[in-house]
Structure to design on (129 residues):
């Protein structure tokens, strides 16, 4: 099923690269327009983790002044299937299944509060929502 959005998806630039915590050949890339890709061969080839843009809120995402970039990727050192990402003008999301499904994690948080609470350690990652 192809989801239609109010704007066509384009991949303009890479905003963030995050190497795997335990596999030297795996790296994640956060790009504009709001997508995350994974390479398992040291960057020779890439595959989109399409569950993120297929999330139910995806059609409502609109670019802000800085675009619609996936600018933050945080891997959970205690759970290789869990990661957190943040997208300008769309919010922050969490996956617990390696990127197949995502859930928003910033509902009800003020922007300044959320940015200070974004997990940066194993303890925070396991307790954050």
């Amino acid at each position: 099923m192809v989801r239609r959005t109010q704007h066509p998806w384009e991949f303009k630039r890479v905003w963030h690269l995050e190497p795997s915590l335990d596999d030297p050949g795996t790296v994640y890339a956060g790009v504009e327009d709001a997508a995350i890709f994974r390479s398992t061969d040291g960057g020779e080839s890439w595959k989109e983790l399409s569950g993120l843009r297929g999330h139910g809120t995806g059609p409502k995402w609109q670019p802000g002044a800085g675009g619609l970039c996936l600018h933050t990727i945080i891997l959970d050192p205690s759970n290789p299937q869990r990661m957190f990402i943040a997208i300008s003008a769309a919010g922050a999301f969490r996956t617990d299944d390696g990127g197949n499904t995502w859930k928003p994690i910033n509902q009800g948080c003020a922007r300044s509060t959320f940015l200070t609470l974004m997990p940066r350690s194993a303890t925070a990652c396991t307790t954050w929502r």
